[in-house]
Write a structure and sequence with these properties.
By secondary structure, the chain is of the alpha/beta class. Helices cover 51% and strands 9% of the residues. Bound molecules: phosphoenolpyruvate (PEP) and manganese (II) ion.
Length: 359
């Protein structure tokens, strides 16, 4: 590969960056056949394959290890794909560098552990290889931000983040709840770090990968990482979420790319007006919330004078039921309105508590 291509690997000017390849390198044939299928599509910028797999349960396939590197070398030579591999310790970094891997990624389980992240950060110090950092498995944005900071402090200048969703007990629809607001907050705090979505690990099943990919594109993510396998049903890891190269190509063709800025003046005016309306409504809502809190503080004084508890479950149930009923009539989702009213109620309790605690 030319120097030029290497420097362009994490160049997001040609957005979005598309990363694909199998969850794990299994055999030379599986790697080569998958790479050929992807090459024929001409849509992939970076080829991924796990060499070491951090598996939740012992006894699961834990990756082929170093024997996989010559296969990846062939992928690079025959199909001129740059390569990315997951690293979870300094030894992995060393082997990836020896084997001409172009981009490293830190997996979700590793991001949860600052010792591991620091070990990797130390190992890349002075090398300046691009590194992508998956979000931690738990919804703790600080661990994600902290990992990025450790790499930047080690001198890494090409760092990207991968949003792969969060473990969530009771979640059924997704394998890992996307919790988009965490990724949006990440982007707010690090607007210059490219943000890539990994719909495969969010979804855990093929059927929903398109909708999550489209949402990521609509939220202006800088790239997508989607697992593909020449024979997904017989994959040694993550069988239900991998796509054949043709299915991956069809999914890419279905995606709609929308521009962030509108050039057409009439549309821009119209949009401006609608946004003004939204700003006005937000203002009104905030003022009404302030009124609501004022009333709530008055109630707080009565409760204090009469020695009554702040929380009364009968009243709280009445509020929820009333709001949900109204929200459904108004075409708002039940989940949204419950989240909203809980947030308002929490604030109201805090304010009444302050009153109770006043001398
Ligand atoms: C993977 O990319 O195959 C992987 C192990 O992902 P994660 O770290 O997101 O679980
Ligand atoms: Mn996987």
């Amino acid at each position: 590969m030319t120097e030029d291509t290497i420097s362009g690997i994490l160049d997001f000017s040609k957005r979005p960056l598309i990363i694909s390849g199998p969850c794990s390198a299994e055999t030379e044939k599986q790697v080569m056949d998958t790479a050929k299928g992807l090459k024929d599509l001409d849509k992939v910028d970076l080829f991924r394959a796990g060499i070491w797999k951090p598996r939740t349960y012992p006894g699961s396939f834990e990756g082929v290890g170093e024997v996989g590197f010559p296969w990846l070398k062939r992928v690079k030579e025959e199909y001129s794909f740059p390569l990315t591999v997951e690293v979870a310790k300094a030894k992995h970094v060393e082997l990836c560098l020896e084997n001409d891997i172009d981009v490293l990624w830190i997996g979700a389980r590793s991001t949860t552990n600052p010792f591991v992240v620091q070990e990797i950060a130390d190992a890349i110090s002075g090398v300046d290889i691009p590194v992508m950092v998956k979000n931690p498995i738990n919804p703790d944005i600080a661990l994600w931000l902290g990992a990025i900071e450790r790499l930047l402090k080690s001198g890494a200048s090409r760092v990207a983040a991968i949003h792969r969703g969060f473990s969530n007990l009771g979640e059924k629809y997704y394998r890992n709840s996307p919790q988009w607001q965490i990724a949006i907050e990440f982007r707010r705090q690090y607007p210059d770090i490219p943000l890539i979505c990994d719909p495969s690990h969010i979804c855990g099943r093929r059927e929903t990968i398109f909708e999550v990919s489209q949402k990521a594109i609509d939220l202006r993510y800088d790239g997508l990482m989607i697992e593909s396998h020449i024979d997904p049903d017989h994959a040694w890891s993550d069988a239900s979420q991998q796509l054949t190269p043709p299915a991956f190509g069809a999914l890419m063709d279905r995606l709609t790319y929308r521009t962030e800025h509108m050039d057409d003046p009439p549309i821009q005016n119209e949009l401006e007006m609608l946004r003004n309306n939204i700003d006005n409504i937000d203002e009104t809502i905030i003022r009404l919330l302030a009124n609501r809190m004022e009333i709530s503080r008055k109630i707080g004084h009565y409760k204090k004078e009469n020695n009554v508890t702040i929380f009364q479950s009968k009243r709280w149930n009445e509020i929820i039921n009333r709001c949900v009923k109204l929200a459904i009539q108004e075409d708002l989702s039940e989940e949204f309105i419950i989240n909203y009213i809980k947030a308002v109620h929490d604030e109201s309790i805090d304010q009444q508590e302050n009153i109770m605690n006043e001398d």
